[in-house]
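Q: My hope is that you can spare some time for a protein that puzzles me. Underneath my words sits a plain record pairing an amino acid chain with its backbone structure tokens. Those tokens are not coordinates but codes from a learned vocabulary of shapes. Thank you; the sequence and its tokens follow:
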Amino acid sequence: MEAQIDKWTTIVPITTGLTTQPSIQAQGNNVFIAWSDSRLGASEIFLRRSTDGGQTWGLEQRITETIVDSVSPDLDADRRYLYLVWQEDQRIKFALYDGLQWQRQTVLSEAGHRPRIAATKIFPNNFNYVVWERVSRQSLEANQPSQSSLTQAEIVISDDQGLSWQKVRPLTSVQWESAEPDVAAGFQLAVVAWRDHREATSQIYAKQYQEFKASPDWRLSSPGNARRPAVAMSRADYWRWRGVRRYRNRVPIALVRLFESHGFIWGGRWYHYDTMHFEYRPELLVADCLKTP
């Protein structure tokens, strides 16, 4: 794995537009890239597809066509469909692609930011999980016009490829702020992580979903101001999932060393291991921490 990760192909331009916020998803040799593009004035969502592992690319598809900005696309896929969520002005929207056309465009929320989507891989009874953050306003004092903003991470779930959706719910208690959620899914399970303010400093918390059922919250970060969690399931291992405390890691060590060289610590080096966990803590990276497990 180290030899493979040290070799990169030549950079291939995907578009010449004014592009931001790319999202990429691969299923076998099919690779999809979506991005927000402002070449036409307002930002729109575009997509390109490769059927040969990224060696060549098909024509651009323009997914949105509105007078407001469409930003923050995110992709996931199962064996049949490609799923897309994005932010259109303040709305969170969903659509799926069956290889021929886009279908089931749905508004999931009237007020949200930074949506993320994950789909379990069992088919046809798979689940879609969509998370985002919503800024609500709360009065500082009763009957006073002054207000404060409170960010809440929210989730909505579908068990029929987006035909219907459960009620939108907060990821955790609304008594404190939660933000920056991310979600990933494996064969039957999904994991959501977010920035959480129930303690004196911001921490990273996570929970696992199996169908509609959620586990208790887990705190993943150590004391400090932690933020911007990212979750991946395809190579992730966590000691609680294994049932026994037998170490397992499928993350290439070359990738771990790359993160550590930029000041991140890796949960795969812990006794209670968590191989999906990278946290920016350069002050903890003493020489003894960098030994290969």
Q: What stands out?
A: The helical segments are 2-5, 239-242, 253-261. The chain has one domain: 12-234. The CA atoms of residues 193 and 206 lie 4 Å apart.
